[in-house]
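Box S2. Input/output pair 1.
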Amino acid sequence: MIPDIPEILGIERAVYGGQTPWDDRAFRSELMRKNDRLYLVLRRNDWLVAFIGCSLNFKTKDCHITNVAVAPNFQNHGLGYFLVNAIVKKARQMEFEKVTLEVRMSNTRAQRLYRNIGFVDDGINKGYYFNDREDALNMKMDITKLG
């Protein structure tokens, strides 16, 4: 058993109104792929309060953020900012060229966070999200130009 999965799902339920965009099986599959996945979790007093995951494409040098969530009681304290920047830093250390992600069109708060970090818009995926067919905004950051 991978011990963080129940806590990750709990954060997703809290953030996404009782829903979990990914289920136990999806997270288990992700976390078993140790060569091309990277997950970071933040804990406070042994409670998981935030996480971020990404897939690593060594051929295209793309670090793709697949999910990120911060428990509601810990939002607005810079944890999401910290996690995204930690992934960007790790991708640079691994000599990747870009970091990419999708974000719901309605999630303007997350879009603002990503833009503040240095991501730029990179097109729209129409009907991307399975449950409600909401569009996704593609965003990317070219990390070859960072100092």
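Box S3. Input/output pair 2.
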Amino acid sequence: MISRAVGKVSLASMLLAILLLSSMVGLAALIKPVAAAPESLTCSPTSGYVFTSVVLEGVGWGYLATVKIYFNSTQRGVFEYIRDVTTNATGGFKVTVSVPPVVSGEYTWYAVEPGTQRAAKADFTVEEGINLDRNEGPVGTIVRVYGSASEWQSSKKVCIIFDKDKDGKLDAGEILTNVTSTANGVIDVYVVVPDVKGAPYYFYANKTSINIGGDLLPGNCYNASFTVESPIITISPSSGPVCSSVRVSGNYFKINYLVNITLMKGTTVEALLATNVPTNATGGFRATVTIPYCTEAGIYKINATDGINSAAQDFEVSSPSITVSPASAMVGETITVEGQNFAIQRDVTIYFSIRRTGARYELIPVKTVTTNAAGGFRATVIVPEVPNDNPTDMLQT
């Protein structure tokens, strides 16, 4: 009996063990090890001109490993070494590179980790045509014009053109420079924005030979847009009496040039306020001018010009005024006279204006005072003796 019981227990134990083992095998079949993410490379942007800045980003590389970056042309069959980059603690990297000077077409960025089998690539299209290092600026701006084209391979002469009158034709004086392309059809040259009014324009580079009067059409030329910025000025203050000092600040005038500042009434120049004010490397300037003593009250324009473009702001020359307190007094009494908007830091004479019989006036000077930095003054005067021919007395300055 005992041996049979032991035998039954042993059989049950064996069955349980078999079931557990089967379950573990099934579970093991379901649970598979997660493979490490394969190395990868992406580029942004995926297209652009020669010399374009491109961001390359990699993941899944070795820890603190050295990765070599190459640029490959299927057309040329050449791997061009660009630079090394070191990965971070997670096997990633991010680096900015420049598109080499190659002819337009389809290319590939490669990343290779030496001593391993890790390698990845990202496709890139080198666009045909020209590009600018900036798309706006004032007259005199130095602009880099660069690009590549199949028409320019084998060292061709390329004209850099600026369509000054925006008529879509090549006119005399519109070729800024001639440049010889490289064997790969690449150009890279600096030119200066010519003397034109502020507005949008185009730079052109001819694909084939072009003559004066020829059309600047897409079939004949590559183009890139550029906006010539219109100048602006600010003034402070925007109103004041004669002899006021006015700060004038300008931007977007011709670079490294000279500006003249005038006071204008309509289209008439009333006064030349400043001459030969130099602009800086960005077309800006600062100057302080003085409103002339003889200027009548009214609204004027302070105008700045470099001979090509100009900018203006309104300035109001304030009318002088006085107040008298009290408004009436006896001979020999003291009154207070206050004035505003007179010529700054100038002598002002206070008069009694006496109206005689027959509408004849006589001025009696009673005091001379000096105005302050704002063109104001405050003075006390004594009412003078008045002749006895029934006058009407008025205080004047």
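Caption for Box S3: The first helix runs from residue 2 to 30. The chain has one helix and 30 strands.
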